[in-house]
Automatic annotation (TrEMBL):
Name of the molecule in the record: Aminoglycoside phosphotransferase domain-containing protein
Species whose genome carries this gene: Fusarium oxysporum f. sp. pisi HDV247
UniProt domain Aminoglycoside phosphotransferase: residue ranges: 61-262
Record-linked Pfam families: APH
Superkingdom of source: Eukaryota
Length: 281
């Protein structure tokens, strides 16, 4: 079934020859094994200095860089400043600001209730600001540029769409299954399909992975939200259910999610049913 729109191509940022060569030089220099042993090299980000980092994984996209630029231009939410982004030999490179602080997974359970409350109040304001951005006319479920969304938690494929409507996105998630297709044999499936079919409000701008690992802070001040690879225009409930279905190492964060995002118990139950039948982790 073809529910996808024509894919919009994301554009590079500040990708002149000088910036490209500088970024590639820094990336290769910092991947030399002798230097790598002297610097922290956690996960998917190459830390160049106290102020700079480079992201260039197999799944890095130009849309991720554009999402950070979009948020910076349209909100006061703190995000890494993007210095350049470009594609080179089938890999995307993003040179960006290294956000100060530590992610909230480090020491969250040892924080006082007052400290947690101050941080969560900031996150509540930031997520509300993201959700208040007016979507472009005609946008469905798509990344910031109107192209395919990226989410490694979705079944079978990491890149999906774009989709003209939220209903089209939902139909693809359940692999085209409609009412009458033996749904009575599977508890909750009829309710899920009715939920998926709406009606729906317009999509909202969504980070898509608000785990404690992606929120940086110094003391009680949020200094930045990072890892925008799954950002885009999504169904209104998606931010909440995605944040709730977190990395198993991050299970303590579920209690916090209900304090900075509006709890959506029905939508969460529908997502649990979808994951049960159509699955991903």
């Amino acid at each position: 079934m073809n529910t996808a729109l024509i894919t919009m191509e994301s554009q590079e940022i500040n990708s002149g020859l000088c910036m490209r060569l500088t970024t590639l030089f820094l990336y290769r220099l910092n991947r030399i094994s002798c230097l790598r042993r002297l610097r922290k090299h956690p996960g998917r980000i190459l830390l160049v200095s106290s102020k700079l980092c480079i992201k260039a994984t197999a799944f890095t996209t130009l849309a991720e860089a554009n999402a950070m630029l979009f948020v910076a231009r349209n909100t006061s939410v703190p995000v890494p400043k993007v210095y350049c982004s470009f594609k080179h030999k089938d890999r995307v490179y993003v040179l960006m600001e290294r956000i100060a602080g530590q992610d909230l997974s480090q020491g969250w359970t040892q924080r006082s209730e007052g400290s947690k409350a101050r941080i969560l109040a900031q996150l509540k304001t930031m997520t509300a600001e993201l959700r208040s951005i007016t979507p472009p006319d005609g946008i469905g479920v798509a990344n910031v540029d109107g192209g395919p969304i990226f989410d490694q938690r979705l079944p079978d494929e990491s890149f999906w769409g774009p989709f003209a409507t939220i209903q089209d996105f939902h139909r693809e998630l359940r692999r085209g299954l409609e009412l009458g297709d033996d749904e009575e044999a599977f508890p909750g499936l009829r309710e899920l399909i009715e939920f998926h079919n709406g009606p729906w409000q317009r999509p909202v701008f969504t980070h898509g992975d608000l785990s404690s690992l992606n929120i940086m802070a110094v003391d009680d001040k949020v200094t930045g939200i990072v890892d925008w690879e799954s950002a885009g225009w999504m169904p209104p409930y998606w931010e909440y259910t995605s944040a709730w279905h977190i990395n198993p190492r991050n299970a303590f964060w579920r209690d916090a999610v209900d304090r900075f995002l509006t709890p959506l118990p029905h939508e969460l139950e529908m997502e649990k049913i979808r994951r049960q039948y159509f699955g991903e982790f």
